[in-house]
Automatic annotation (TrEMBL):
Top-rank taxon, per record: Bacteria
Occurrences of domain ABC transporter (ranges): 2-236
Descriptive protein name: Amino acid ABC transporter ATP-binding protein
Record keywords, A-Z: Amino-acid transport, ATP-binding, Cell membrane, Membrane, Nucleotide-binding, Transport
Similarity remark: Belongs to the ABC transporter superfamily.
C-alpha cells in the first residue's frame, strides 16, 4: 500500500531524515517511535507530501506520488491525516466540519455529503453531537471528529501524528479505542505514538527512529519485549 524509498529531508543545513525506507502493507498498522526531533512527524508528512522529500520516493499502491507530475491534491484526498491539534472550524457544526471535504474535494452534493458525514460520526460514537460546535465538545470528542472527517473521505490509509498528545489523560482512551476499532476493521494506518498498550494491541510493525534514521524495525511485540538496538532499549526504559 505505502512504500518509502530512501527518504531524505533537509531544512536549510539540517539533515532531518537520512535515507528512510519503509513498507506498509494493505490493512497493516505501522507505528513510528522515537524521541523528540528524531524525524517521526517529518517522515509521516512526507508520506502524503505535506512535506516534500528532498530526495527519495514515496509510492502509494505503486504510484510514485513524489513525481511532480502527480496530482498531490488527489493523493491527499486518498490518504487521511489526523494531527495533534484538531483543526476544526469553530463556526461550523460538527456535521459541517466532517462534510466539508466531501463537498469541496470529492464534489459530492451537500445532502449526500452530510449523510456520509453522519455515518462517519456514528462510527466514532458521536451520532448525538452532530449539531454541536467544536467548542461544546471535550478534547477527546474533538479528536474523534477529526478522525471522522478523515473516515468520511473513505481513504485508502490514515496517518496519525501523535493524535493523543494534546489530550488530558482521561480522554486518551476514547481516541485510542476508535483507532483500535479501525485497525480491527483493516484500515491501513501509520501512527506516531508512544502509547505502549495501544501499540502492543494494534500495531503490526514498529519502526524506531533516531536522528533521522531507522535504528530498529520489526514485529511490535518483538521490538517492545526484545529490542536489539541499545537506543531502542534506552528509549523504552525512559517512557515506561
Amino acid at each position: 500500500m505505502i512504500e518509502a524509498r530512501g527518504i531524505h529531508k533537509y531544512f536549510g543545513g539540517s539533515h532531518v531524515l537520512r535515507g528512510i525506507d519503509a513498507t506498509i502493507a494493505r490493512g497493516e498498522v505501522a507505528a513510528l517511535m522515537g524521541s523528540s526531533g528524531s524525524g517521526k512527524s517529518t517522515f509521516l508528512r512526507c508520506l502524503n507530501r505535506i512535506e516534500e522529500p528532498s530526495q527519495g520516493d514515496v509510492l502509494i499502491e505503486g504510484t510514485v506520488i513524489t513525481d511532480l507530475r502527480t496530482d498531490v491534491n488527489r493523493v491527499r484526498a486518498d490518504i487521511g491525516m489526523v494531527f495533534q491539534e484538531y483543526n476544526l472550524f469553530p463556526h461550523m457544526t460538527v456535521l459541517e466540519n466532517v462534510a466539508l471535504g466531501l463537498i469541496y474535494v470529492r464534489r459530492r452534493p451537500r445532502s449526500e455529503a452530510q449523510e456520509t458525514a453522519a455515518d462517519a460520526l456514528k462510527r466514532v460514537g458521536l451520532a448525538d453531537h452532530v449539531t454541536k460546535h467544536p467548542q461544546q465538545l471535550s478534547g477527546g470528542q474533538q479528536q474523534r471528529v477529526a478522525i471522522a472527517r478523515s473516515l468520511a473521505m473513505r481513504p485508502k490509509a490514515i496517518l496519525f501524528d501523535e493524535p493523543t498528545s494534546a489530550l488530558d489523560p482521561e480522554m486518551v482512551n476514547e481516541v485510542l479505542e476508535v483507532m483500535r476499532t479501525l485497525a480491527e476493521e483493516g484500515m491501513t494506518m501509520v501512527v506516531v505514538s508512544h502509547e505502549i498498550g495501544f501499540l502492543r494491541k494494534a500495531a503490526d510493525q514498529l519502526i524506531m527512529l533516531d536522528a533521522g534514521q531507522v535504528v530498529e524495525r520489526g514485529p511490535t511485540a518483538r521490538v517492545l519485549d526484545e529490542p536489539e538496538h541499545e537506543r531502542t532499549r534506552e528509549f523504552l526504559r525512559a517512557i515506561r
